[in-house]
Amino acid sequence: MDAAGSAADVVVVVAAHGRPAAQEILAAMEERMYKTTERIESHVAMMQARIHRFPRGLRGIGGEDGRYIVPSVVAIGPYHHGLPHLQEMEEVKHAAAHRFCRDAGRPTEEVYERILSLTSDARHFYAPDDGAVARLGDAELAAMLFLDGCFLLQYMGKSDDEPMFAGCNLSSGQAILKDMMLLENQIPWLVLDALTEFLPLDVRQFVADVGEKFFPKEKVTGWMWIRRFQMFLTKRRRRCVPAKTESRGQSTISYRPAHLLGLLRFSQIQSMPGNERAYQAGSSSLLSSSAVELAQIGVKLSASTATWLGDMSLGKKLVLGELCLSPLFLNDVTACWLVNMAALEARTAWDSDGFVVSSYLSVVAMLMDRKEDVHELRSKGVLRSLFSNTQTLAFFKGLGQHLRLGGRYVVVLEQIESYKRNRPVRIAVHRFLYKNYKIIAAVLSIAGVIIGIFKALLALKTG
């Protein structure tokens, strides 16, 4: 029934029954208004903490057969629990839980009871009307969280000769890392926090170390060398009490993520400077430019040395411009993580400031129109990819069609537009030289030959 119909019904009821009926309807309406407001406010309050389903509007970037949405080898949490192709890893989970309790020196019952005591709180982190969660009783949910949490911590702290993971070759090991950071494949942080009370493990450091996979190995900056030295000192095992010092800018110790994917995103952008967050984006109706088009107008691409993923800024040099972008290593794992961090932003960002990763991906996608643009990004050290140029182009253009254009994306377009507006003469000269450099080089070469001939003739004549 539409609004007009509802209003008409109220008028009919009031006319037929008088004032008391109107008061009853008003009271019922106010109660519904109150409950609806309370439900919406509760939903908004939990938005940052909730473990979300992958946004339906972004499923176009989920990869072939949804490989960036559905786990490949291991289910973590209730959303994909019980899928047939994930059952082999369930055996490993039980072995991991046994090893965890043994290493912690605590009986299984004690550890399980601790997780059971958190089940009511943990349930609130999932969508209340989701059937995958609703079908599980508290005891079943606690058992699943216990096994999944122990598995994750054992995998994070495993040594090179860990017997339970002996069957995990390089390929399946990468698949586990990929699955650990899927939006729909998470358990609440409070479960991992409770388990580390029994057996301390620096989960934050593990996630920060894993995040280094985003950066190309050829472009190792100073801060990465420091990080690698830290990793070398603690290479054998990462089981330790969490450090009380700050890491790469803002401290991760005080940050309470909802889950591992949220921590991965935070670890990549935590050192983003305050002035970068305080930008003011203007109009979004600006024209985009590909990498080759930027090269034509005298804007060269270069790899940023910033300590966070998603750095983008256009600087004006004396003659040319320079667009600095965070360097990126792209393979199937990092591509999956990027997709899921963008999906997380789509679910949890309050405003355009929250779309840091999405803005970065949108700018990179903007720079790619042809395979030649991909080659340009590779040659400048901005991108290293195990994908072919064609695959890389398809990945980013697929992303660009679906992602929210965050404020940082608009800022970069504004900087490019400002560069074009303020340097028309230099741009015209550079574009002419760029497009005709082969002809110019040929002419200069011919002129050099002619001059050489004249010099030789002149030498013969004077001789």
TrEMBL record:
Keyword annotations: Membrane, Transmembrane, Transmembrane helix
Top-level lineage group: Eukaryota
Transmembrane segments: 439-460
InterPro entries membership: DUF247_pln (IPR004158)
Protein name: Uncharacterized protein
Originating organism: Panicum hallii var. hallii
Organism lineage string: Eukaryota, Viridiplantae, Streptophyta, Embryophyta, Tracheophyta
